[in-house]
Amino acid sequence: MSTVVDTTTTPVDIEHIDLISRTEALIPLLQQNAADTEEGRRVHQDNIDALEEAGLFRVSVPRRHGGFEADFGTWLAIEEALGRGDGSTAWAFSLLNIGNWFVGLYGEQAQDEIYGTAGGARTCGVFTPSGTSARVDGGWRVTGKWGFASGSWHANWAMVGFPIVDGDGNPDIGFGMVPVSDYSIEETWFVAGMSGSGSNTVVLEDVFVPDHRVLALGGSAVHGLPTPFTDEYLYQAPFLAPGCLILAGPQLGLARAALDLVIEKAGRRGISYSSYDKQTYAPTVQLAVAEAAAQVEAARALVYTLCAEVTTTVAAGRQLDVADRTRIRVANAYAIKTAREAIRTLVSAHGASSFANANPLQRIWRDSETASRHAFALFETAAEVHGKVLLGVDELPTTLL
């Protein structure tokens, strides 16, 4: 497949096409470092340096803080391109990127503090309301552990969820921003796939989190987001929508990488115990490649359409209701599942050698199988929630909508 951006099938803001081209230029470097990233269980430093030099850690940062304030379709295109090079790098970047976007939902004081970090902000985060908190003058004292903080090795801020109560004594969930000097990282990410994403555990021990760095989930739903910059429409989106969509980018990239690899190898490989000296001529391989290509294109079309819908909706000053949010979540999860199926189809077509350690296809397969089980990416969970909404069931199993 060509590495040239096709704007007819990748609907993104034309202003940011150069960002995508810069990202695609990094694919060979990421491929070269993929094995080392996996073995070292963190994104190779050369990759991080290249992302920084290309300005990619500023993709979701507001323009007034030196960022690109890029639309969600541009995020997806960048994450997809990174996934074609290396799944772990794409995943870590995707989570750090949305962490930086999440900062834009806070009040001006928090934004100035975090976006003003020397060298630029890189924000990892875990939404799960873990740990304990105690109300003190001016903020909260927080203790706890938050697992699966992707990109943790390269972050300088962490967003953690913890229980709080509002001024009326009602329970709520607070999302607190904590600088790297206030937390430690417990190395817990020992996994079969996405090994290099650095999705370790963030640990806080009686850390003070001031009020201006705490965003109340329920309070924001009732009273609006703390950010005073309401003309910056990208930061008015309900966080679940982009929070789900970013998980598709790496998966789409992995699927395209698998398709490229199998097509490239087919002309140089035969099929054991058959008369085919080249897989290219075998109808089973032809059908498998065609099916996988169709699955990849279908998944891409669906997710880019969802990104465009979220972007245009918030740009028009409208909000997505609960039914829209759950629909977007399940449709995105279906696209991720479809991309995963494409990779499975390609692995079978390629044969047993897919699983040789030296074959990048086995790492692509493992990364896909692991990433597609993220709670926001899992189709079965998303389908349950949306099914309840469609059927008029009032009690939903989650408040993260």
From TrEMBL:
One of its GO terms (molecular function) is oxidoreductase activity, acting on paired donors, with incorporation or reduction of molecular oxygen, reduced flavin or flavoprotein as one donor, and incorporation of one atom of oxygen. Residues 245-376 form the Acyl-CoA dehydrogenase C-terminal domain. The keyword Oxidoreductase applies. InterPro entries: Acyl-CoA_dehydrogenase (IPR050741), Acyl-CoA_DH_C (IPR013107), Acyl-CoA_Oxase/DH_mid-dom_sf (IPR046373), AcylCo_DH-like_C (IPR036250), AcylCoA_DH/ox_N (IPR013786), AcylCoA_DH/ox_N_sf (IPR037069), AcylCoA_DH/oxidase_NM_dom_sf (IPR009100). Residues 31-115 form the Acyl-CoA dehydrogenase/oxidase N-terminal domain. It comes from Gordonia rhizosphera NBRC 16068. This is Putative oxidoreductase. Gene3D superfamilies: Acyl-CoA dehydrogenase/oxidase, N-terminal domain (1.10.540.10), Butyryl-CoA Dehydrogenase, subunit A, domain 2 (2.40.110.10), Butyryl-CoA Dehydrogenase, subunit A, domain 3 (1.20.140.10). The keyword Phosphoprotein does not apply. Keywords: Oxidoreductase. Belongs to the HpaH/HsaA monooxygenase family. It comes from the Bacteria. It holds the Pfam family Acyl-CoA_dh_2. GO terms for cellular component: cytoplasm. GO terms for biological process: fatty acid beta-oxidation using acyl-CoA dehydrogenase.
